[in-house]
Specification:
Elements (H helix, E strand, L loop, with lengths): L3 H14 L4 H13 L6 H10 L5 H13 L3 H14 L9 H8 L3 H15 L6 H10 L3 H10 L24 H9 L6
């Protein structure tokens, strides 16, 4: 954990072998995300799209990275292109609700959240993304409720709650610290 330099060096070896791999560009972007460097992955995720392969994770990760840089208007493009490209892979992606909330489009964000909460019962949607949308709306109570829901089905994206800046408004809340501990992520 925290060995970003060696990870990037190892990945560079893969680029020497296969420089046009969308997977390797996405992996490099994810390494930057893990380091909380949210500017550097954007070119990597764009490269996955420029290579011409229909790599839906490239759209998803680009759409996820742009709001972390406060590029909410720019995030709308990949967000709305993604569902049209891949409804099966990312059904009802919750990111648009977060972006709409950050753009001040509160009614639209709440409408999207209501729709997503209904889909949550029948589809495999990450509760963490719904929590992020509530945080974007300033509703910490609902965000904590949805984060607590990640404990039941073991939401894979929950491993990022300690480092994702979307959760910074909760860092001082003892309930958030308790959730982090319950997930086995520690408080330090």
């Amino acid at each position: 954990m925290g060995r970003i330099g060696p990870a990037l060096q190892q990945l560079q070896r893969t680029f020497d072998i296969e420089p046009q791999s969308t997977l390797f560009h996405a992996a490099r972007g994810l390494i930057y995300v893990a380091a909380r460097n949210y500017r550097s992955p954007i070119p990597q995720f764009r490269k996955t799209l420029d290579l011409g392969e229909p790599y839906d994770l490239g759209y998803y990760y680009l759409a996820w990275s742009l709001p972390r840089n406060h590029n909410y208007h720019e995030a709308s493009g990949p967000l709305y292109e993604l569902p049209a490209r891949s409804q099966d892979t990312f059904p009802g992606v919750p990111l648009p609700a977060e972006v709409r909330a950050r753009l001040g489009e509160r009614t639209e964000a709440r409408n999207l959240l209501t729709e997503l909460e209904g889909k949550f019962k029948t589809q495999d949607l990450p509760a963490t993304s719904i929590a992020q949308a509530y945080l974007a709306l300033g509703d910490k109570e609902q965000a904590l409720t949805w984060l607590a829901a990640t404990l039941k089905p073991r939401c894979p994206s929950a491993i990022y709650i300690k480092v994702d800046p979307a959760y910074e408004p909760l860092h001082a809340d003892p309930r958030f610290a308790a959730l982090v501990n319950k997930m086995g992520l520690g408080t330090g």
